[in-house]
Design goal:
By secondary structure, the protein is mainly alpha-helical. Helices cover about 65% and strands about 0% of the residues. The protein is elongated and about 80 Å long. About 0% of the residues are buried.
């Protein structure tokens, strides 16, 4: 005997109960896998209560989900992205490399801006 509860707008009858249960399980599996990816594969998606006075935690969650969606889109559509993923052992490594590159580029930009402002060249 199977005991669980699903919220559904479908009428559950003897004829369709197997399909409703299968749909509920597959939806739970998809949500669980996505949440697991967001928490453990470099996205650091955890409870972010307390960030900002009103909307910062919602904004951070939205940006994180947009990044996850963009990465998923790259996996599906970009021919070079799978090659990059084969070279790097994990998504976390990819994120760390992007973070390091971004930090380096920002430092170079600040250095160029500083020298241009104070020394007049570049």
């Amino acid at each position: 005997m199977y005991h669980t509860a699903f919220a559904t707008s479908h009428v559950v009858e003897q004829a369709n109960v197997v399909e409703v249960i299968a749909a509920g399980r597959s939806r739970w599996k998809i949500e669980n896998e996505n949440n697991n990816t967001l928490k453990t594969k470099g996205y650091h998606f955890e409870h972010n209560d307390g960030h900002g006075q009103q909307f910062l935690s919602s904004l951070l969650a939205t940006l994180l989900l947009l990044a996850y969606g963009l990465q998923t889109l790259l996996e599906w559509r970009d021919d070079k992205y799978p090659l990059l993923r084969q070279k790097l052992p994990s998504r976390q490594r990819l994120f760390n490399d992007i973070r390091a590159l971004t930090t380096y580029l920002l430092k170079v930009y600040r250095l160029i801006t500083f020298e241009k402002q104070f020394f007049g060249y570049f």
